[in-house]
Amino acid sequence: MSDTNKGTKITLHWLNQSRSQSIVWLLEELNLSYDLKAYKRQADMLAPPALKEIHPLGKSPVITLENENTSSPMVLAESGVIIEYMCDHFDGDKLVPKRYQDGKEGQVGGETDEWMRHKYFMHYVEGSLMPFLVMQLVMDVVKNPPLLPFFVKPLPRMVASQVEKAFLERNITSNFDFLEQQLKTAPAGGPFLCGKQLSAADIMLSFPVISAGAKFPLKEKWPTLAKYVDLLQEQEGYKRAVKLEESEGKKVEASL
């Protein structure tokens, strides 16, 4: 166990094709030692029941922490909670922008633009972006239901297509337009969300935008966002995370 762990045993409960990929990257950036316990999605693409033994909702990512202060493992669920807690306790200052402008410490409105952006995007990902991407995933399944007879399949396909046209396409486009503009106006010219340095907000956003890059025409319609997706995958911490997972036989797939 490394000194950076502060005497804490860290276990990441990793699920394929899930946001847990981002947490591996986070742990690598924080230079932490950790155990990776893998779970594989079932044939229906749902998480296996074993994850409910760790957290009642049976979702991933989930992290457990054990040290002299814990009588039983501390369970952290939800990507945002995990990222913020780990940055708070394990020297994550390098991943969180400076909060206050000089001389304005503790004042309302005294925060830096970088910190306000960071705070916003830590909540934007799950609150605004992911619901539409998950709904798109559901519509993809509805359009190609595996168990329906072929002569019935056109009906759900038609319904799903109407939902996409009336609701999903414009909302996903709006979010990608927003991200394109935010990256163009990033502090100090970017190239990351909050300026020149990688932040926890970039790690939080990585799973949905990397997944989206495999499904949507980012390079044609949102070139700045496409370059950002490439940039994230070029980060040494991200590449270490992918290499680690693959070396342990865990196929990395950021996909919707």
Automatic annotation (TrEMBL):
Reaction catalyzed: RX + glutathione = an S-substituted glutathione + a halide anion + H(+)
Which superkingdom, per the lineage? Eukaryota
Residues annotated as domain GST C-terminal:
111-254
Asked if the Swiss-Prot or TrEMBL record annotates the protein with the keyword Mitochondrion, the reply is: no
Extract the PROSITE patterns matched here. Answer: GST_CTER, GST_NTER
Segments spanning the bilayer are none
Is-annotated flag, keyword Glycosyltransferase?
Answer: no
* SUPFAM superfamilies xrefs: GST C-terminal domain-like, Thioredoxin-like
**Alphabetically ordered keywords of this record:** Transferase
User: What single Pfam family name could you report for this chain, choosing any that match?
Assistant: GST_N_2
Positions of the GST N-terminal domain: 7-94
Family (UniProt): Belongs to the GST superfamily.
Q: What is this protein called?
A: glutathione transferase
Protein's organism: Aspergillus candidus
